[in-house]
UniProtKB/TrEMBL annotation:
Keywords recorded for this protein, A-Z: Signal
Database matches in SUPFAM superfamilies: BT0923-like
InterPro entries found in the cross-reference section: PepSY-like
Pfam family, one: PepSY_like
Protein name: Putative beta-lactamase-inhibitor-like PepSY-like domain-containing protein
Residues annotated as signal peptide: 1-24
Species annotation: Mucilaginibacter gotjawali
Putative beta-lactamase-inhibitor-like PepSY-like domain boundaries: 30-60, 72-133
Length: 165
């Protein structure tokens, strides 16, 4: 009887130990290096960080500053990679981008989201549009709606377009 209690106690202790190792590894995976945190604070001194995410040796802070939410990404050495700010309103487009969009083949399409991507290479506007073709089948599913992402440089030059499914 005593050996069964001892075996059970050792088994429980081993399980607790293994579980704590797994959680420790998960936490270490998302730890943000001090140099990355310092680089973020230097670039965005008034920002409030909600969360950090680590992917492929890059660290992305989900942050908020002056009422704007954005995602700032830094590499493992603390170098700024880019910052993405998401908007649901076309009023955030620069005048040259608005004008270029009005002259594009997508001018009649519905703008449902905008990403402003800032990077060391410059600023790009990603305009997400759909054709507003909201026909519905017998199962109340939308049919034939096409979504695109159109990228413009800050000066209004269209860089590329992608179909989103």
């Amino acid at each position: 009887m005593k050996s069964i209690k001892t075996y059970t106690a050792l088994t429980i202790m081993a399980m607790v130990f293994c579980t704590s190792l797994i959680f420790a590894q998960a936490n270490n995976k998302n730890e943000v290096p001090a140099n990355v945190q310092a680089a973020f604070t230097a670039k965005y001194p008034n920002a409030q960080v909600k969360d950090w995410e680590a992917v492929n040796e890059q660290f992305t802070a989900k942050a908020k500053e002056a009422g704007h939410k954005y995602f700032a990404t830094f590499d493992k050495n603390g170098n700024w990679v880019n910052t993405v700010t998401k908007y649901n309103w076309p009023g955030h487009l620069s005048p040259p981008v608005k004008e270029a969009f009005k002259k594009s083949e997508y001018s009649g399409w519905h703008i449902y989201a905008i990403n402003i991507v800032e990077s060391p290479a410059g600023q790009v506007y990603q305009v997400m549009v759909d054709d507003a073709n909201h026909k519905i089948n017998a199962n109340h599913q939308e049919l034939f709606t096409v979504n695109h992402t159109i990228e413009f440089k800050q000066d209004g030059n269209q860089v590329k377009q992608n179909i989103i499914n």
